[in-house]
Predict the 3D structure of the following.
Amino acid sequence: AQKVTQAQTEISVVEKEDVTLDCVYETRDTTYYLFWYKQPPSGELVFLIRRNSFDEQNEISGRYSWNFQKSTSSFNFTITASQVVDSAVYFCALSEASNYGQNFVFGPGTRLSVLP
Amino acid sequence: NAGVTQTPKFRILKIGQSMTLQCTQDMNHNYMYWYRQDPGMGLKLIYYSVGAGITDKGEVPNGYNVSRSTTEDFPLRLELAAPSQTSVYFCASSYSPGSFGSYTFGSGTRLTVV
């Protein structure tokens, strides 16, 4: 069965520090999709990135970068030069192509606090 | 604005009461989902639909019902509210289950059962 683990429950950093949020997933499918979502204190879910299992290229978007490694089943998220506005809960999620609907599985989330 | 609209945003129910959480999307997405998020936890799938007239259970369906009479609407029904259903409920939609774009989430409904 599919599973997403985010071992870091809470992380606190000081503004301008770099921080990496870990995500480890389990799946038997060869085709799957990985996501990161941000949930700020206001409560909405904000899509950050989607990555399919055939694309292991790392991605950078501004201060955000993602490191996808199939060999370790990890999809880690790094924020460079963190800012107070980055404070939120971040969720990693997995969707298997073979079993749509029932398998968009979220990790438990990592609460990031960026202190001024 | 295009997207997923959920109503109401907040609701307090007494034990045993019923209510319907509304969800509407205007993106012509086939797939729609209901999740619940308990305090300090990730999201769990309650029900999902792959198109009008087709629904199926997710991980935690007990105590809920859904219907999908149109592509746009996917209401979630609580028949006999229980304190265990106190949660934040998110509706989401997608064109397909992951191959195109991302899931779009509504802003959530915070439900408290007392």
Chain B touches chain A through 28 residues (CB under 8 Å). Chain B is about 0% helix and 50% strand. The longest strand of chain B covers residues 43-51. The two ends of chain B are 34 Å apart (CA to CA).
